[in-house]
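Thought: the user wants the 3D structure for the chain below. I'll pass the sequence to the structure tool as-is, report back what it returns, then summarize two notable features.
Action: structure_tool
Action Input:
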Amino acid sequence: MDVLTRLAALLIAILLAIDAFSAERTETLRVDRHERTVRWTHDDAYRLHFVGGRVESCAVGWSAFQALADGDEVSVDTSPVFKSCDGIRRGDEVVSRPNLHKWLLLVPMAILLAAAFGWIQFERRFEDERRWWFG
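Observation:
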């Protein structure tokens, strides 16, 4: 693997680590509108759109979608780098709880760090397809 690819893998792993393990930012926002996307193969997708802060929208579940009305003031917890929604509260009521996506970030972080340090190498041989070789 060339040096630029390894540096890119290290940079992305660092950004994922900062996003996963830094303190959340809490903003007070107003619900602007609701959006429902109908899917044929899976459950419907629900999204709340906000005004008054750096977060424009959040994907939520059915209960949070129904619990909030347009114009409601809510507190939204977001991650610092990628601005993903980690939780929504209206006063003391928890409307949407944070999910486990921060723990799931450990898997790509580990793979990217292993590639950056050369523990996983991508080699191409003429007689074989692309393979992973562990060094």
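Final Answer: Structure generated. The chain has one domain: 3-122. The chain has a mean pLDDT of 83.
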